[in-house]
UniProtKB/TrEMBL annotation:
It comes from Streptomyces koelreuteriae. Keywords: Antibiotic resistance, Membrane, Transmembrane, Transmembrane helix. InterPro entries: MFS (IPR011701), MFS_dom (IPR020846), MFS_trans_sf (IPR036259). It comes from the Bacteria. This is MFS transporter. Residues 433-452 are annotated as: Disordered. It is found in: Cell membrane. Residues 433-445 have a biased composition (Polar residues). Residues 1-495 form the Major facilitator superfamily (MFS) profile domain. PANTHER family: EXPORT PROTEIN (PTHR42718:SF49), MAJOR FACILITATOR SUPERFAMILY MULTIDRUG TRANSPORTER MFSC (PTHR42718). The keyword Nucleotide-binding does not apply. The keyword Transmembrane applies. It is a multi-pass membrane protein. CDD domains: MFS_MMR_MDR_like. The lineage of its organism: Bacteria, Bacillati, Actinomycetota, Actinomycetes, Kitasatosporales.
Amino acid sequence: MMFAVAMTFIDQTIVSIAAPDIVRELNLSSSGMQWVVNAYLLALAAFFALGGRLADLYGPRRIVVIGTVVFVVSSVLCGCVPEGSAAQTWMIVFRATQGFGAALLFPAALAVVVAVFPVERRGRALALFFGVSGALTALGPLLGGWLTNWTWRAVFWVNVPVAIVALVLTALAHIADRRRSGTLDVRGAALIAVGMGLSVLGFQQAWSWGWDSWATWLCIAGGLAVLYGFVRFERDVEHPLIDLRVFKDKAFAVDAAVLFFSMLAFVPLFFFTSVYAQVSLSASPNQAALFLLYFFIGFAIASQWGGRILDKRGARPALKLGTVVGCVGFALWANKLTDLSMHDQWPYAALAGAGIGFILAPASTDAVNRSIGASYGEVTGITQTVRNYAASVGLAIYGTILTHVTTDKVVQTLQSRGMSTDDANTVARDITESITGSGDSQPPTGTGPAAEATRDAMGAIRMDFAEANQWVFYGMAIALGIGYLFAVRHPGGRPTSNETVEEPVGQAH
């Protein structure tokens, strides 16, 4: 199962490294490239609950296989995108179907793992599961940097051999399909997908439309209203997509809240750090990948440590420690971004990674341990929906902050070099579109005073981009700080085996 979910974790990071080459070859816009990244995360958030419910109804093994096939076919199609006007739409559509396949695959795979281990051993087992998965996430940038030197399309095609091995191992494992009685809540699935899609669209497009645009707030408010309607609808359904009774457990609700605020930083970090490294540090894709590796050194160590804390003392100590360490780590890292030295930043990157490592496995495992009856797939769907919705919102909000601050700072830089206000605004917006969407810091090749002034200012513009990224990283620190306020409200303790009665593996209704 760890091998099966490897693809879903690798694809959260691998595309960020290849972004400059993708933008350059396909001529994508800044917002278009962000949507190539965000479409995957949004589909994960929108369909995770559905994936968990399908695993319950039809058996996790079957859904693992279906999700793997959908994922790998979509990956191949992403790698085969044609050049031309249809390229952007093609990439966004098949990145979304990739996310749909991952949303089917992950909760089903985790449900299989959870069913194997009793509650008292589950913390260490899932710490291994999430720790190895996190290490595979770190592999994404490294693999992406190496493959991009050949062709960026290979970052999608690499999923094919992984999927083949995963399917063979799944067959050899002889996994029994547990099934639960009930029906599929199609209306609920549609409501949560529409609500999440609309709200994230509003956040994402705030840069293009403006925060004062009625369209921005119509999408945000409309999406949140649909999600509220989803909650009201689920209360009256006999077999709901999400059994909201689980949120009456205070520990589960706190676990979900801490996961939400930590994921505002975790997944968006991959995109912003890789672009920062390539623009402000003038790093190659391979060097940018190594930059992210520092983060995962801290993550991998703390993930195992957090699993032991969970087994011995429950989730509360791990969540409190993780949010504090993460908040401090991101704040110190933000302060160092303007040093423009990868070597000086690695301790703070590792500290930020350790904070997330302490949180991820304990919060996810504690939430699953508090599932209702045998519905591990359903509860996993809930927690993963929370995580990936937070990642989508974080990417959208931080992207908007980055583009606004970068534009303002570049305008000031160009004006200080004698460029008129109108020209400075036009050039600054073009530069921001280029670097925030793809990490492309190539100086302009045109002629004329504007191009000359811009080429002369590229060193200062790299610093402007670093300063703009400070806002993003401080925002991530604030998110972890808010997470701490929830972590201290965790009631503590550990659920006992009789609180999560699991059917014998292989039993079907």
